[in-house]
Write a structure and sequence with these properties.
Number of helices: 11
Distance between the termini: 48 Å
Largest sheet: 5 strands, mixed
CATH class of the largest domain: Alpha Beta
Structural class: alpha+beta
Order of helices and strands: HEHHHEEEHEEEHHEHEHEHEEEEHEE
Shape: globular
Number of strands: 16
Radius of gyration: 25 Å
């Protein structure tokens, strides 16, 4: 099991707004295998030491250096913390505060020292959904299962959810003849399954109202098609889990749902690239980093796609968005791509942190604009 601390949207916004000199960001890959986490602890110690060296070279106040060093040492000595890790660890520290996030994504080791935090690793962890509901629907029963990145899959109690198809129809069996004799054979069974599906949808409507979490349907093809014909939840995944879910555990259904989420994420990227191409022809998109930095500074970016691994050190002017690139990382610079993402977040734009191959035109960043500049 992965032990995760995933940030919320409010967490990201708060981190994006924070400005403190000095601010230290440390990112490192970790392992969830407890006997091997001492290696992670040593890696963190080395990166923390690198951060202190950069701050010393920048002439940081001795009191601030001592406070940061003490916070790092406290974390290094916390045996319980290092016992429970995921695939990545992100630590944000100022002389007054230290925050850590354990993430399910893969990362490259990084130390960033500046007056703001390096947010791209968190953005990658929150860009694509790791959470969904699974509707396990069969004639013999129905379950709603909540799947999250950091907790075991669990059944969700839903008021008025029918027990099974027969009880929903008020019959001992959905193959029974109706009093009028009209509902018989396969057509009669379909009518009663549609009644069952409609009752399931009605019960879910109140439970899922206001949610944007994907709903993954697990059902045999025939019943799945009937349910889709009456579904009113707008975030039902177009592809579901095939076959009867009756003998599958919550954990097995959760595992099967991961492939559906991966498909949704791939489609989201494809749709974004299509939209980028249309807007680019209209003069409302760019993959030129200088233009995107300027647009982010003027709050003109509606949606941003950024390479989570690419690094450019430097600074972006606060008024005109001009990039002043630095040859090496240091306390007097920060990650340019990360700063672009931060400015887009603060202006209410969408930010997708992706792999390089997902970006259009082999770029490090691409933006869809609110208006042409």
């Amino acid at each position: 099991m992965l032990h995760l601390d995933l940030p919320t949207r409010d967490d990201l916004a708060a981190l994006a707004r924070r400005r403190h000199d000095p601010s230290v960001s440390i990112v490192l890959p970790t392992t969830p295998i407890t006997p091997d986490t001492d290696v992670d602890r040593l890696a963190f110690r080395a990166l923390a030491r690198e951060a202190i060296v950069q701050l010393e070279a920048a002439g940081t106040d001795r009191g601030a250096l001592e406070a940061l060093g003490e916070s790092f040492d406290d974390l290094i000595d916390d045996d319980e913390f290092w016992r429970f890790q995921a695939h990545a660890l992100v630590v944000y520290a100022t002389p007054e505060n230290l925050i850590s996030y354990r993430l399910p994504t893969t990362v490259e080791p990084l130390v960033a020292v500046s007056d703001r935090f390096h947010l791209k690793p968190l953005l990658r962890a929150t860009t694509f959904g790791n959470t969904c509901y699974v509707l396990a629907l069969a004639e013999g029963g129905v379950r709603l299962i909540e799947v999250s990145a950091d907790l075991p899959a669990a059944n969700v109690r839903v008021a008025d959810l029918p027990t099974d198809a027969a009880s929903a129809a008020g019959k001992a069996s959905i193959n029974d003849r109706s009093p009028s004799g009209r509902l018989t054979g396969s057509e009669g069974k379909k009518v009663r399954l549609r009644q069952y599906a409609r009752l399931v949808d009605q019960a879910l409507r109140e439970r899922l109202a206001g949610h944007e979490i994907p709903l993954v349907l697990a059902a045999v093809d025939s019943l799945g098609a009937i349910y889709r014909s009456v579904n009113t939840y707008p975030h039902l995944a177009p592809v579901g889990i095939e076959g009867s879910p009756e003998r599958l555990s919550e954990a097995e259904l959760a595992q099967a749902s991961r492939a559906v989420l991966d498909d949704l994420n791939r489609q989201r990227i494809a749709d974004w690239r299509d939209r980028f191409a249309v807007r680019n022809n209209e003069g409302r998109a760019s993959s030129d980093v200088a233009q995107v930095a300027r647009a982010a500074t003027f709050e003109a970016v509606q949606s941003l796609m950024v390479d989570m691994d690419r690094v450019m050190n430097g600074r972006i002017d606060e008024t005109d968005g001009r990039i002043d690139e630095a040859e090496t990382a240091g306390a007097d610079s920060y990650g340019v791509y990360d700063e672009i993402a931060r400015r887009v977040l603060l202006s209410g734009g969408e930010v997708l942190a992706v792999r390089q191959e997902d970006l259009p035109e082999d770029a490090g960043v691409a933006a869809i604009l609110r208006y042409a500049l």
